[in-house]
Write a structure and sequence with these properties.
This protein has about 200 residues and is an alpha+beta fold. It has one domain (about 40-60, about 70-200): C8orf32 fold, CATH 3.10.620.30. The protein has five helices and nine strands; from the N terminus they run H-E-H-H-E-H-E-H-E-E-E-E-E-E. The protein has a seven-stranded antiparallel β-sheet with strand order 1-9-8-4-5-6-7, covered by helices on one side. Helix 1 (about 5-15) packs across helix 5 (about 120-130) and helix 3 (about 75-90) packs antiparallel against helix 5. The protein is globular, with a radius of gyration of 16 Å.
Length: about 200
């Protein structure tokens, strides 16, 4: 996503946010307890549909500019950005499955904001909006999990200096990854969004 598109995307989100009140998020990003980092494992296959998405959106899937993995510093400004964008995206996309929208099983896309989409689209939109807001690309990674109902689900993980947190389309509150009920399967590597890694610990 080039700079002009990113700025337009962020402006669209801010415009949508102005139309809706933001609920209290007192429990967001609670660091009163120790929060661990997700342990990346071995190389894993990308999710179905992701490679095809990258072929048409190469700039979104290119490697991070920094060689060393970066973390989001959870200062007041970044907390506010994470909370606002998580809430804005959850409000700006109406949930519909890919079958309902397109008659196919897996379609990753960037144009769901203001329209409809599924968990993958929420995660992508949050990732791109946070990058546009200035957060480090390599700290914002999409992960594939399995829910307690044995359904595959996509979320956005944020690597921070206080541990790893989850931005979800199901739970409006940003929580430590260990506070979810998910089994963690795979996620993007920090340096290369096209490279997916299995996750060493499952919960």
């Amino acid at each position: 996503m080039n700079t002009a598109i990113r700025l337009s995307f962020l402006a669209t989100l801010m415009g949508l946010a102005a139309c809706a009140g933001v609920p209290g998020q007192e429990a967001n990003l609670d660091t009163s307890r120790p929060v661990t980092q997700i342990a990346d494992g071995r190389l894993a296959a990308p999710p179905p549909g992701f490679v095809s998405f990258c072929m048409h959106n190469l700039s979104v899937c290119t490697g991070a500019e920094q060689a060393a993995p970066a973390k989001v510093v959870l200062n007041d400004q970044n907390r506010a950005v994470l909370t606002a964008i998580n809430d804005q995206i959850n409000r700006a996309i109406a949930y519909k499955t890919d079958y309902q929208n397109f008659g196919v099983a897996n379609r990753w896309r960037l144009d769901a904001v203001g329209n409809s989409g599924d968990c993958k689209d929420y995660a992508l939109a949050k990732q791109q909006a946070l990058i546009a807001a200035g957060l480090p690309k390599e700290a914002l990674r999409i992960a594939i999990v399995k829910t307690a109902r044995d359904e595959l689900h996509a979320v956005l993980t944020v690597d921070t200096d206080k541990g790893d947190f989850v931005l979800d389309s199901i739970n409006p509150v940003i929580v430590p990854w260990t506070d979810t009920s998910y089994s963690w399967l795979s996620r993007q590597s920090a340096g290369d969004p096209l490279r997916w890694l299995s996750l060493a610990r499952n919960f």
